[in-house]
């Protein structure tokens, strides 16, 4: 048996690990810049699929299917991102005689549509955010909605996304004006002037339920994850279990998720996302029809291997665990390590990783897509690795995260480790007192720099003394020029200066 | 040796005497006896002889006296200059002429936030560049007036390409 | 609060990690060759304690106590090895006003004596190997014993140890002659001609029980570990739980261990070792009055942190878990990675670690005392790291071990990874069909080389092609001379040639 | 280029043609098209162009044409010699004269297993040296007669110190 991984980075490595433990051969694909990436080094065989831009490599269905055929692969795993939620690709994979490691294309298409999935969730009895199921056709519909549900409400452009095309209305007098502007903005930005209305969920938490279903109709939920620490709608830190979900709420969330799974004839892994409001009410948000980045925290807490389970399910095997066997133990936290500089407005930081000292010891897992000397290319998502800690309880997991961060040393690229080191010292983070807007608010307030400066206050003077000693020791020698890696260094230096003028000339 | 060490907002005069791995450092009027030994040119151990306090440091040596040093969990970009270099650097900054904003990385221009003739403040975004699946705001590092803009939204640019000139 | 670690290597790192998570400051000590060892890099403060030989550094009680005083440490953790089972040291530590992280010195002394601990175990009702409690004074005592217990028996010099001074008698006619030779050997080798007799336990398994007790008399057992894979009486691979221990036997073993704990007024962590014979009968062997090398497998399976628990107990806190809360989950295996060359009769392999690529991903933990560029000195136990894998069941753990071994890359020193890679492919290992003599027998049979050769049979030709390509690419350039690390390389090369004549000139 | 590659008991003639990262290798009468690219001088990726088969290798280059190569989970000590070197090596081995056993590592002699005049076999232990808390048997790599012994049990020796001479 041979499985082709239509992906790169840490998730390709994760899938190779699962296959190796299952005795399944692995076929890696790589773009020109990824020839020596860990997923290529680890796979049993590997095939080039074109130049760096994803559209010409990892997103090129024809090339992927050609490699599948040439390599004799029987299965194809899309990972997450790239083509993972592309139902057309899933259909082409199946038409080529391969097993698609994912849900049926029909379910992918259904749950991939905002309107359809919302209707399905409603019909399955899952709570959805009160709102009109169809676009507003005139102002009186909107007024009727506000009469019934009150203010504030959220006006959303049908074609919007990623936080754009949304407008909050808190004052009844502004209703008409806001509606008009929302329509014209939608037209201007997205070429579609239609607008929905929903009740605004204030300071919500993002809670998602991991579901697993087989082809025979068996389905379970494997607890929930809390993913409220987001930057610009991208998850940054995730936890399992949610600090605010108890057994009773877990059961209700799980059952709501399973109702959706059953109503959509879903099988394979999936994630049903909910918003949880400050009153403890939850609402269906969307479903992700793939393996999730943050699956490891669920694995740690429930003691299961989701990727192996996903492959077994694709092969037609029945679910290997029953609901009552899924008992959580302890608490897990994941931090996404990106090649970005949090102190320079998250400027991307590609380059060569010259030092990569990983944390280890009890309760520390690292799922990494790089090793020492790896080059982080410009062309893809800048996630380098996921640091996952587990401990018997949340307070200990926080301390362990702090400890693991203190051991993690990376040179050559800037990383979001700086962000996590500041976060882990914050009372609000330690007390789980946050919502989906927490991090963006923190970042715009400038408090991150302040927090960073408060850690280890003597460090700056020690750094200055160390630098003076190093300069003394190297005086008369050529500069080590450790920043310089051919072409990589000039832009780094220039970029740093230009972005914020902080790096010395 | 005598150094001017600059980082963030502060600047310190530092006097260092070296004997092998041991250093006597005077900073802000205080003397410290230190030991600094390097594992491999990137990781080193800094130890205060008086207290035994130990710090693992990692470091990179850039050009023009720039050092990036991590101590504990914090990272610092520092300049270590001879007193003569320090004087020169100050006057160079004072006399800085027209400024040119160049693309720090290859990418796609997704927005130009200013037009010729605009007065800009330090830190004001000039161009938005998409790279690594992210939008990155390129900001001015000084006040000035926009003299020329060399790109429009939609352009693909190489690293180092000139984007905006200030006068 | 500050804790001094009177140790080095991975266990010093392990203790620093525990302290950091507990908010306790750490004081490391180091000999001249360990100035840049990870435990020194990680600790909050560090103090030199002398030259490389352990007798002048890590075993020097005066120096350790002087550092304890100078650094203001409140606690001292001895790790394992060095002074960990030295009751005199424990007493001096306590007399100096520090908290000894370990059992009371009296219990250490009692359980450290072979004869006393055996008597105590017997009085506590724990099964001991049938044998005379006192040395044989004349041949008729021995004959009476054989009449009662049958053959074979084991004659053991009172002062023997480490497998020396033992003699098996299987034939009644040889009884008198063997007894005489055992007495004269004991006199010759150990200066003590006294000899015991015990029933020989044939093909035994080494099973040990982790116990944890507080000062208030609460004590629990935290399952058992199987440590039958040994080389020359040194554990090499350990598992938790034992593949041959079920819930009923676990309970009996645990209760036998607790009886010994209670009879000896023990508190802190401890390990009670048993032999399990082929009929399922078990016998008390000895008690280790310290943290055990292989504690991580218990941590993984029971979800507890034994080192943090040990420190809390030393501080006088009560046990933080009850017996019924200790529920095992899954299966863990530990491999001890030594700087030794299994293909050259385990010749020690000190040197500089030029490449250190660690395995990662789900269920993999590494407790390491080295990082890339670390120098492995000649002067101490050559254990570099412990690779621990966890999986939901033993079969999956075996596959995960195999996978993790395939990711682990070390250059600069030879390691026992080679041994584990061969072992993990053996049917007897996978089926847990082994006893304490299994590995020594395997190693003397020469089967290890054969097993090594059977793995990946195409690899040799690929290696030859790669070497020819590398030689072609480097022709005309100076040799990289990557083996050479100053003085370290010549002996490596010479030693290799001299030991086995296998390395090319 | 033409090489004689030796490892373990076997010896192969290997012909290599190089074009950048691509190599055509002929070994045992079979031709292989390979790609070999190195990450950092110790880790490389070997890829068979015909099948896509990929192998991660790690390597060290020693002196005198010696290479230590790890492929998958196995480690090989290989000699890569020019044909001329190979001929020379064979005759050198044939003509080898008296042999000297030197301490491979510093340690303490805990046993001497032979006495002058003893006939020894290849692989027969001559001296037991304690280092890294372990006893290590140092064996003869050839047959011969013990000419001289330079240590006694209890001696501490340095790496490279002469222990035993065979004639």
From TrEMBL, chains A, C:
UniProt keyword list: ATP-binding, Biotin, Ligase, Nucleotide-binding
PROSITE patterns: ATP_GRASP, BC, CPSASE_2
Molecular functions per Gene Ontology: ATP binding; ligase activity; metal ion binding
InterPro entries: ATP-grasp, BC-like_N, Biotin_carboxylase_complex, Biotin_carboxylation_dom, Biotin_COase_C, CPAse_ATP-bd, PreATP-grasp_dom_sf, Rudment_hybrid_motif
Span of domain Biotin carboxylation: 1-444
Occurrences of domain ATP-grasp (ranges): 118-315
UniProt-recorded name of the protein: Acetyl-CoA carboxylase biotin carboxylase subunit
TrEMBL record, chains B, D:
Gene Ontology molecular function: any one: propionyl-CoA carboxylase activity
UniProt cross-references to SUPFAM superfamilies, sorted A to Z: Single hybrid motif
Keywords: Biotin, Lipid degradation, Lipid metabolism, Magnesium, Manganese
Endoplasmic reticulum keyword on record: no
E.C. numbers: 6.4.1.3
Pfam families, alphabetized: Biotin_lipoyl, PCC_BT
Catalytic activity, reaction form: propanoyl-CoA + hydrogencarbonate + ATP = (S)-methylmalonyl-CoA + ADP + phosphate + H(+)
Coiled-coil parts of chain: none
rRNA-binding in keyword set: no
Domain of life: Bacteria
Segments forming domain Lipoyl-binding: 92-167
GO aspect biological process, one term: lipid catabolic process
Pathway assigned to this chain's UniProt record: Metabolic intermediate metabolism; propanoyl-CoA degradation; succinyl-CoA from propanoyl-CoA: step 1/3
CDD domains: biotinyl_domain
Name of the protein in question: propionyl-CoA carboxylase
Organism the protein comes from: Candidatus Sulfomarinibacter kjeldsenii
